[in-house]
Specification:
The complex is a heterodimer of chains A (about 120) and B (about 110). Chain A is mostly beta strands and about 120 residues long. Chain A is built from no helices and 11 strands. In chain A, strands 2, 4, 5, 6, 9, 10 and 11 form a 7-stranded mixed sheet that branches. Chain B is mainly beta. Chain B contains no helices and 11 strands. In chain B, strands 2, 4, 5, 9, 10 and 11 form a 6-stranded mixed sheet that branches. The chains are: A mainly beta (about 120), B mainly beta (about 110). The interface of A and B includes residues 109 and 110 of A.
């Protein structure tokens, strides 16, 4: 079945540095990918929608200059957390829709997640 | 604004018992998803429910959808320890960013011997 690969699985960084997270669709082309954030023991909250070849759409309250999203190809979206601070520590998960499943159930596939810890 | 409510949020049950998790949503949607998440892991897709009256079963889990009542249930039959995890329901947000999912808060299930 379709697989979404997310890398890295975990990252520890110093406050003020930037971290890049990659999300790849391995066997389908994804024009749209979603980035979610999950704080401990909480649900997933959508941060932004990544659109191939155009600007990302950010949810209310998410700083677009802090969370840079690039979707340069149909199989890769990246999320860069710029000037990270301890409050950015969270579990980040990407997802991608397999367009071939629109009729049969529109499956969204999730990456394995990235645990970011900012010291 | 689409809201998704799950209950209970915490569920401790003994092996062999049955229980149901409920998922209510506030506006019309014809696609409801159930996911399982183990600690520190991503989401595992369990069910996609597409129409009113849809019922799907996999092992000890059965999910149903009532679009008129805007309610989905996840029924657990004869629970076993391996089912311990957090279960999320999610609904497609057609009014949002290109059909992203809105998640419930999750139900943390703990099955004890």
């Amino acid at each position: 079945g379709a697989v979404v690969s997310q890398h890295p699985s975990w990252v520890i960084c110093k406050s003020g540095t930037s971290v890049k997270i990659e999300c790849r669709s391995l066997d389908f082309q994804a024009t749209t990918m979603f980035w979610y954030r999950q704080f401990p023991k909480q649900s997933l909250m959508l941060m932004a929608t990544s659109n191939e070849g155009s600007k990302a759409t950010y949810e209310q309250g998410v700083e677009k200059d802090k969370f840079l999203i690039n979707h340069a190809s149909l199989t890769l979206s990246t999320l860069t957390v710029t000037s990270a601070h301890p409050e950015d520590s969270s579990f980040y998960i990407c997802s991608a829709r397999d367009p071939g499943t629109v009729i049969v159930g529109e499956k969204l596939f999730f990456g394995s997640g990235t645990q970011l810890s900012v010291l | 604004e689409l809201k998704v409510e799950q209950n209970p949020l915490f569920l401790s049950m003994q092996e062999g018992k049955n229980y149901t998790i409920y998922c209510n949503y506030s506006t019309t949607s014809d696609r409801l998803y159930w996911y399982r998440q183990d600690p520190g892991k991503s989401l595992e897709s369990l069910f996609v429910l597409l129409s009113n009256g849809a019922v799907k079963q996999e092992g000890r889990l059965m999910a149903s959808l009532d679009t008129k009542a805007r309610l989905s249930t996840l029924h657990i039959t004869a629970a076993v320890h391996d089912l311990s995890a957090t279960y999320f329901c999610a609904v497609t947000n057609y009014g949002g960013s290109q059909g992203n999912l809105i998640f419930g808060k999750g139900t943390k299930l703990s099955v004890k011997p």
